[in-house]
C-alpha cells in the first residue's frame, strides 16, 4: 500500500489535488492574473555598420595646391555622411534636412567620438562627373547618438526622434492533445489568448484581430469592378497587425485511483509549448522558443490553459517590442529587372551607397534577362519603405538618368522589385551614371552642398540633379555683399 501511494504521489508531483486542498486551489485561481514579464535586455555598447560616400570638388583652388587636403576633406565628408545615415535611422529625413545645421554641430562633427572604427575605405578617385569620391565603411556607436538627439530634442524644443506610436499586436494560441497525435486539428483557446491580450494591453499597446482585418479586406475587394482597383483602396483598407504572436501548447491527462478513498484523480499535464513572434511588415520571425516543462500539472483544464497564457506572456516585455520598433534598420531584398550589364549593376550599387536611407548594400546576383538581386540594409520601417524608396531612391536616380527609367514594380514583405525600362542602352546608361553628379546630391541638405561645392563648374553639375536647391543657394546673399548699414539693421 505504501509503495502504491508513493507511486501515485510521484505521478502528480507538483500538482494540485482535487481532494484535500481543493479550496486552496480555488482561492489561488481567483487571484488577479500576474505575468512575470521577460527581463529587459541589458544595455550594451551597441553599434551599427554603415557604408557611405564622401565627395569633394577637385576644382577648388586649395586642392590644386595640396592634393592631401582634398583626401583629408574626402575622409571628413565620408565620416560625416556615415553619421548622417546613423542619425537618419532615428530622425525623419525631412526633420534632418530642416535641422541640418543644428544636428551637424551637435552630432555630425563629432566623428572622432561616435565612429568606433573605420573598417575600410576605397582609394580616392576623380570621376567623369567632376567630383572626387571615396567610399568608406565604419562602425558607429548607437547610444551616444540617440542620447545626443534626445538631449537636443529637450534643449532645443525640437521633435527630432521618430515617433513610432503604439504597435498593433495580434494573438493566436492553439491547444493540442498530445496523446491523440499530430494529425488532430488544433483548437484555439480564447482563455489563453485573453490572458496574453491583457499582458499586451498593459504596455499601452493595441490588440488587433487579423481575422477581422481579413474579412474587411475581402469586403473592399468585392466593391471593385472586375480587375479594376479603386485608387482609395490602399489608403482606406484596414491595416494588419504590426506583430503577430503565435503559440501552441500540448497537454495530456493522467489519472490514478486513490486506494484509500477509491476516488480517481485526473491531472492535466503540460508536455510542451512553443511560441514565435513575427514582424508582419517584413515577414521576419523576430522571436521563437520551445519549452518542455517538467512537473507542471493542474487539476482543472481551464487553469492549465490560463497558465499557458501567462507562460507565453512572460516571453514578451515592453522593451522587446520597443527595441524592435526602434531598430535602426531593416533588411530588404531588392530585385531589379532589366539591367543591361554587370558593370551597370555595380554602378547602381555605388549610387545606392550615396543615398541617405541605405546603410549598406550588397550586389548578390546579376541576370541580364531576368532579375538582378541586391541585399539592402535600409533605415526606416517597412510601413514607410515604399514612400522612401520612391522619394529617396527612385526619384533621384530618375533625375540623373531620365524620368521613368526606374519604376517600382512590387513590394511584398521584405522583397521589393524595381524595373529599368529606359531606352538607353548599356553604353548610354553607363555614361549617364558616370558623368552626371551623384543622385544623392538631389536630396542633400543645402548646407552640405555649400560645404562641398567650391567652383561654378561643379555647381552646374549639381544643378542637373538638384536645380531647385542650386537656385536657392544662388539666391542666398554672399559673404561681403551686405552693407554695414544693412548688417546693423538686421542685427
For the biggest sheet, the summary is:
7 strands, mixed
Count of spatially separate domains: 3
Runs in which pLDDT lies below 50 for 5 or more consecutive residues are 1-44, 157-163, 223-237
N-end to C-end Cα span: 102 Å
- Shape type: elongated
Summarize the structure.
This protein is an alpha+beta fold and 491 residues long. The protein has helices at residues 2-11, 22-29, 61-65, 67-88, 93-98, 100-108, 111-114, 143-155, 190-201, 210-222, 233-236, 301-313, 318-325, 342-354, 385-401, 426-435, 446-452, 456-463, 467-475, 484-490; strands at 47-56, 115-121, 125-126, 132-141, 168-177, 187-188, 206-208, 243-257, 264-279, 284-291, 297-298, 330-337, 358-365, 371-378, 406-412, 415-420.
Explain this structure to me?
This protein has helices at residues 2-11, 22-29, 61-65, 67-88, 93-98, 100-108, 111-114, 143-155, 190-201, 210-222, 233-236, 301-313, 318-325, 342-354, 385-401, 426-435, 446-452, 456-463, 467-475, 484-490, and strands spanning 47-56, 115-121, 125-126, 132-141, 168-177, 187-188, 206-208, 243-257, 264-279, 284-291, 297-298, 330-337, 358-365, 371-378, 406-412, 415-420. The strands form three sheets. Strands 5, 6, 7, 8, 9, 10 and 11 form a seven-stranded mixed sheet that branches. Strands 13-14-12-16-15 form a five-stranded mixed sheet. Strands 1, 2, 3 and 4 form a four-stranded antiparallel sheet that branches. The protein starts with a helix and ends with a helix. It has 491 residues and is an alpha+beta fold. The model is unreliable at 1-44, 157-163 and 223-237 (pLDDT under 50). Helix 9 packs parallel to helix 12, helix 14 runs parallel beside helix 16 and helix 18 crosses helix 19. Helices cover 40% and strands 25% of the residues. The chain folds into three domains: 47-155, Helicobacter TNF-alpha-Inducing protein (Thiol Ester Dehydrase, Chain A), CATH 3.10.129.140; 166-325, 2-Layer Sandwich (Double Stranded RNA Binding Domain); 330-446, 2-Layer Sandwich (Gyrase A, domain 2).
Amino acid at each position: 500500500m505504501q509503495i502504491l501511494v508513493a507511486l501515485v504521489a510521484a505521478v502528480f508531483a507538483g500538482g494540485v489535488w482535487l481532494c484535500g486542498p481543493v479550496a486552496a486551489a480555488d482561492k489561488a485561481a481567483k487571484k488577479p492574473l500576474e505575468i512575470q514579464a521577460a527581463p529587459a535586455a541589458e544595455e550594451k555598447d551597441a553599434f551599427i555598420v554603415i557604408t557611405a560616400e564622401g565627395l569633394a570638388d577637385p576644382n577648388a583652388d586649395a586642392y590644386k595646391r595640396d592634393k592631401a587636403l582634398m583626401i583629408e576633406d574626402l575622409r571628413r565628408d565620408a565620416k560625416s555622411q556615415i553619421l548622417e545615415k546613423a542619425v537618419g535611422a532615428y530622425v525623419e529625413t525631412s526633420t534632418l534636412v530642416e535641422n541640418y545645421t543644428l544636428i551637424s554641430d551637435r552630432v555630425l562633427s563629432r566623428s572622432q567620438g561616435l565612429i568606433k572604427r573605420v573598417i575600410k575605405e576605397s582609394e580616392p578617385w576623380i570621376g567623369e562627373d567632376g567630383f572626387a569620391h571615396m567610399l568608406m565603411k565604419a562602425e558607429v556607436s548607437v547610444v551616444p547618438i540617440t542620447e545626443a538627439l534626445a538631449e537636443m530634442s529637450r534643449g532645443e524644443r525640437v521633435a527630432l526622434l521618430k515617433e513610432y506610436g503604439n504597435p498593433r499586436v495580434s494573438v493566436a494560441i492553439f491547444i493540442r492533445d498530445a496523446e491523440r497525435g499530430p494529425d488532430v486539428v488544433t483548437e484555439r483557446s480564447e482563455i489563453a489568448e485573453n490572458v496574453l491580450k491583457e499582458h499586451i494591453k498593459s504596455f499601452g499597446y493595441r490588440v488587433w484581430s487579423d481575422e477581422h482585418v481579413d474579412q474587411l479586406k475581402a469586403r473592399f475587394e468585392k466593391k471593385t469592378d472586375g480587375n479594376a482597383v479603386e485608387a482609395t483602396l490602399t489608403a482606406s483598407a484596414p491595416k494588419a497587425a504590426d506583430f503577430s504572436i503565435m503559440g501552441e501548447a500540448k497537454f495530456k491527462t493522467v489519472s490514478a485511483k486513490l486506494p484509500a478513498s477509491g476516488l480517481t484523480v485526473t491531472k492535466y499535464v503540460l508536455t510542451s509549448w512553443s511560441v514565435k513572434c513575427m514582424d508582419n511588415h517584413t515577414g521576419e520571425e523576430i522571436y521563437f522558443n520551445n519549452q518542455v516543462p517538467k512537473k507542471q500539472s493542474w487539476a482543472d483544464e481551464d487553469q492549465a490553459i490560463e497558465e499557458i497564457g501567462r507562460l507565453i506572456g512572460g516571453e514578451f516585455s515592453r522593451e522587446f517590442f520597443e527595441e524592435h520598433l526602434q531598430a535602426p534598420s531593416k533588411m530588404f531584398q531588392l530585385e531589379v529587372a532589366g539591367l543591361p550589364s554587370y558593370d551597370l549593376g555595380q554602378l547602381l550599387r555605388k549610387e545606392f551607397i550615396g543615398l541617405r536611407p541605405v546603410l549598406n548594400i550588397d550586389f548578390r546576383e546579376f541576370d541580364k534577362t531576368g532579375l538582378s538581386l541586391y541585399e539592402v540594409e535600409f533605415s526606416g520601417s517597412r510601413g514607410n519603405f515604399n514612400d522612401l524608396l520612391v522619394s529617396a531612391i527612385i526619384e533621384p536616380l530618375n533625375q540623373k538618368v531620365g524620368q521613368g527609367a526606374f519604376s517600382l514594380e512590387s513590394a511584398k514583405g521584405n522583397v521589393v522589385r524595381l524595373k529599368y525600362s529606359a531606352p538607353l542602352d548599356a553604353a548610354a546608361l553607363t555614361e549617364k551614371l558616370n558623368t552626371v553628379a551623384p543622385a544623392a546630391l538631389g536630396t542633400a541638405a543645402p548646407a552640405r552642398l555649400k560645404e562641398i561645392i567650391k567652383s561654378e563648374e561643379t555647381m552646374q553639375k549639381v544643378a542637373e540633379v538638384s536645380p531647385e536647391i542650386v537656385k536657392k543657394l544662388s539666391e542666398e546673399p554672399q559673404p561681403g555683399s551686405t552693407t554695414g548699414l544693412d548688417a546693423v539693421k538686421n542685427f
